[in-house]
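Hi R.,

Here's the chain you asked about this morning:
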Amino acid sequence: MNKTGQGLILSTAGPELGLGLIGTQGGPQWQSWDLGREMAVYLHSCLAEFFPNQAWGELDFIAVCRGPGSFTGTRLGVVTARTLAQQLQLPLFGISTLAAGAWSIGQSLTEPLTLAIDFPAQRDHVYGAIFQVDPNRSEIKTVQEDMLITTGAWEELLSQSPLKPKRVPLPNSLAVTQGIAALAQARYVAGERPDWQTVIPFYGETWKPKP
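And here is the predicted structure, written out as tokens:
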């Protein structure tokens, strides 16, 4: 068994389908398709094109983006990944879109930094979270979990945070897919083997301040 783990990565929370394969002798492989609303139509054919049937037995784990993002795309990706993990009896890692994006941004830093990362949702809301990232480490620390929050409340929360996080937008789909891969692989190397049943999509309810 590969100590770092050979993993199949699925990212479906945005309009682009992102697939990745890591832990192989030839190095990581990445591919994306701009499917938009046709994600459900073409996901399985793209997966078959990217990953040949005879290679399923070589996998050590699967990782999937659990959101936030598109309701339909996120659900489709998680259901697909859960089905594969169950059938192949493999551990399944559910990785936050925002955490994956924060990891990717962190790779370009020269020193540790607190990041507030977000992207637009509907009706004057954003999906946001806060992380402490260190370019010298493969893991990131979550300060504020993923949440759906009004734009005004998000800006107020950031302005009042004693950590003074740097606000950054979510990077592109390739960066998110690579972040999913890195965070999942770090957890695999650390000995985690999550069951497929533990991975559920993040849809989110609007954040409200504690009374």
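One quick note: The domain at 7-97+172-198 is CATH 3.30.420.40 (Nucleotidyltransferase; domain 5).

Cheers,
M.
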